[in-house]
Amino acid sequence: MEAVLTALSQKSNGQSRLNPNPFLTLDALYARVLSSVSTIILPTTFRILQQLICMPHSRLIDLANFLGLAQHEAYSALRGLHSLLSIPSPQLAHEEKIVTYHASFTDFFRDPMRSGELCLNFPAMIEDHVSCSLRILVQLTQGATNLNNIALSWPAEKANLDLVRSRLLTHSLKSLSTNYLSASEQVQQQCLSTVIKSLMKLDVIEIASVAAPRFFLSFLRGLLTFARSKGSLKYGLTKLVPMSELDPQAIDTGKLAYVCCRDSGPEGFTTMGSRRFMLRTVSREYWRNTADRKWFTAFNKATTEILQKPSMHQILADLDSFRMHKTSTQVIHWGIGEKRVVMIEHELYSDTDSVKQEWLYVVAYPEF
Fold first, then answer.
1. Does 210 or 283 have the greater pLDDT score?
2. 103 FRET partner, CA 20 to 30 A, in 86, 89, 200, 305?
3. Longest dimension (CA), the chain
4. With contact defined as beta carbons under 8 Å apart, do 260 and 310 qualify?
5. How many Å apart are CA 252 and CA 287, to the nearest integer?
6. Which domain of life is it from (predicted)?
């Protein structure tokens, strides 16, 4: 820590004022500290540092378990970096995360002009993410889907076991849904059959009922992208089916259904309503239109309820309407057997088209 403060002091005193790189002093410090790490341990150190960028809010024990590192391996890889990082003790690793003392440390890894050979290798990082996510997913779905199937390289205290495993599953699903399609073609092909076999065993509706709403929304968006990929269609995980072929009798109204609405429009817009759904706001988005520089807002809202409930009957009414008036619209069949679901997307617009609602329904659609 003292070394970092010294470097910052030198910078503020103007010693690097004439240098085009305002972080020259800090960059030299980062390179010097990292060069002191043993070449045997350095690859593991880099895996952890990469995760600090991808998993900035993860507790140390979660980060290590995601990477498959034991406690001693994690601390060995971080030895010598205490001048750059605040590293929780083993007693606090299940509560606290690794924190960088200066934001420029992670920026350093992203910029090849600053870090040179130490620059973040994005393809390798994505491959590592996919591999770790897949390892956890395969463990989860061995036999009956059970959190206890997930092996912990750094075991947690008994009271925290389920919590740690739940967070691992959450991150692995999110990571897989966002990173798999970003991986190289070779990595995708190597992993595809295992990904498909594991995802086929997942109960999407069950995950919706237990996962944090914001996470599930992010996961589901990734899932929808993956559902339309060639590999998913080729291996039979998903099917794209015309709305006219949807069988209302096959919908299981006794199971949970998931509803999501993205309500967007100019800042301060009046929503078109919730259409009787008991929606809760999950997240908000803000952006500025590049054409007229006006601000826009989007509210992501969702709910998970038994389809038989009156507040969910709008789904069935919409499906009847779609089957009559939107016969060629494609819906997604995800999964097989009892865990199969159907995903239906549709949009509603205001009279001026400036306000839009993007709806997504996920409904149990088992096949026997």
1. 283
2. 89
3. 75
4. no
5. 39
6. Eukaryota
